[in-house]
Q: What sequence folds into this?
């Protein structure tokens, strides 16, 4: 049971980090494309 909870939290953490990575990429993209 404890392992399953840890796995779920790891999946959530990975999901959040993936979203923040996409957010950082989009921010970098927009800021570098501003004239």
A:
């Amino acid at each position: 049971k404890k392992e399953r909870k840890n796995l779920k939290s790891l999946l959530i953490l990975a999901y959040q980090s993936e979203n923040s990575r996409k957010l950082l990429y989009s921010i970098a993209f927009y800021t570098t494309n501003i004239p």
Summary: The radius of gyration is 15 Å. The CA atoms of residues 12 and 18 lie 10 Å apart. Residues 2-33 form the longest helix (32 residues). The chain is about 90% helix and 0% strand.
